[in-house]
Design a protein that fits this description.
CATH superfamily of the largest domain: Intergrase catalytic core
Mean pLDDT: 85
Radius of gyration: 27 Å
Strand order of the largest sheet: 1-2-3
Largest sheet: 3 strands, antiparallel
Number of domains: 3
Order of helices and strands: EEEHHHHHHHHEEEHEEHHHHEE
Strand content: 5-15%
Number of strands: 10
Structural class: alpha+beta
Helix content: 40-55%
Low-confidence stretches: 352-376
Shape: elongated
Distance between the termini: 87 Å
Number of helices: 13
CATH class of the largest domain: Mainly Alpha
Length: about 375
């Protein structure tokens, strides 16, 4: 029996109807995003009319925010943060995915913000999604053009970020808390976290650490790791100096994997903030601890040890104007000496924080100031 011929300008690929049509000598090929032939025919008719209006009158074809999101993910799939961007767009899609680009503004985003706030999401998390959204709208105005040279969007409406003053403060570990918590971890997690708290590296800088990035320093009798620019947060190469504890961790991993330093069951570790970390921190009475607080702990201990702000920035890989991979032997020794100060708790006690409140101000009409913090 002869199969039914597809309508002109449409073809079915893996059950999804797609436009494949030549209009005024230009071939158009795009998905109708439907399995229904009737819907695909309607989509095609609308598409042909939009092309006619664009050609004759400069009228921009209607595009949904979902169309723009898909274009963004296609063009920026190489981004380090693309997984987080995908998550942001998934959260936005139920609220604005079907909207025409010109209808995306503060008013139409209100339901999204209220829903996320009701779920207990902090303003910083919502603002990350808003930054991705604003980036896409900017691309629609200034970079993306259709076949007629028209921008996807005529004017950009900048979505306002929120500020509920709910930013979580750093929560550094004391030495006693670290010993108790790390003793509960399975070996692979304990080793990775011990390296992290002694080097100040971010999670993926630990998980993706590669033996090929290790650089020997014969003059100093040790080695460092040079992280590539695509891995670091600020997009610059970073030198990671290792104290005796971190180097001990690294040495214990040698021979386990040809490329990755940290492994589990013979395979590279993909993440540290997993079930084991979350379970054991609750068991240790540290439910409020985040994995990133290990990095805060490094910074706090360096500060308590009297390490200068400039040196702390170099150790932690904070963005600065310096070319951080261009160090002399003397400068590297200074960094190594600094991180060695936090290898021994006897030489670097994590400060206890005391929150001092002026009770006499309680009945004052003056604005309340933030409680001062004193380090012991």
């Amino acid at each position: 029996m002869q199969s039914k011929k597809s309508p002109s300008g449409l073809k079915c690929v893996n059950g999804i109807w797609k436009i494949d049509k030549t209009i005024d000598g230009r071939r158009f090929y795009r998905s109708c995003q439907t399995r229904s032939l009737e819907e695909a025919e309607q989509y095609l008719a609308r598409f042909i009319e939009e092309q006619r209006l664009a050609r004759l009158y400069g009228v921009r074809p209607k595009r949904s925010f979902r169309d723009a999101a898909m274009e963004y993910l296609d063009q920026y799939s190489h981004k380090k943060s693309i997984a987080a961007d995908i998550n942001d767009l998934k959260n936005l899609d139920p609220f604005i995915g079907d909207l025409d680009l010109k209808d995306v503004h503060n008013g139409t985003l209100k339901a999204y913000i209220e829903s996320r706030k009701a779920d207990g999401v902090k303003s910083g998390t919502i603002n990350r999604s808003i930054r991705v959204l604003n980036r896409i709208l900017k691309l629609c105005v200034h970079e993306w053009r259709d076949e007629d040279g028209l921008s996807w969007l005529e004017h950009q409406t900048v979505i306002t970020q929120v500020n509920w003053k709910d930013k979580r403060k750093p929560r550094p570990l004391s030495w006693a808390e670290q010993h108790d918590l790390f003793s509960r971890f399975p070996e692979h997690l304990r080793e990775a976290c011990l390296y992290k708290v002694n080097s100040g590296c971010r999670e993926q800088e630990v998980c993706q650490l590669d033996w090929r990035w290790e650089v020997p320093l014969p003059d100093l009798g040790t080695s460092v790791f040079i992280l590539p620019d695509w891995l670091t947060k600020n997009g610059r190469e970073r030198v990671v100096v290792l104290n005796s504890i971190a180097m001990g961790v690294v040495n214990r991993q040698r021979g386990k994997h040809p490329t990755r330093v940290f492994t589990y069951g013979g395979r590279p570790v993909c993440g540290l903030n997993e079930t084991a970390f979350k379970r054991h921190k609750k068991e240790a009475g540290l439910a409020d601890l985040r994995l990133h607080d290990l990095r805060h702990t490094t910074g706090r201990r360096l500060r308590a040890a009297g390490v200068s702000n400039e040196t702390r920035k170099d150790i932690l890989g904070h963005e600065s104007g310096d070319m951080t991979t261009h160090y002399s032997v003397a400068e590297l020794k200074e960094l190594l000496d600094a991180v060695e100060l936090i290898a021994d708790e006897r030489r670097c006690a994590t400060p206890t924080l005391s929150f001092l409140k002026n009770v006499g101000l309680r009945d004052s009409c003056a604005p309340r100031r933030s409680d001062p913090v004193t380090e012991k």
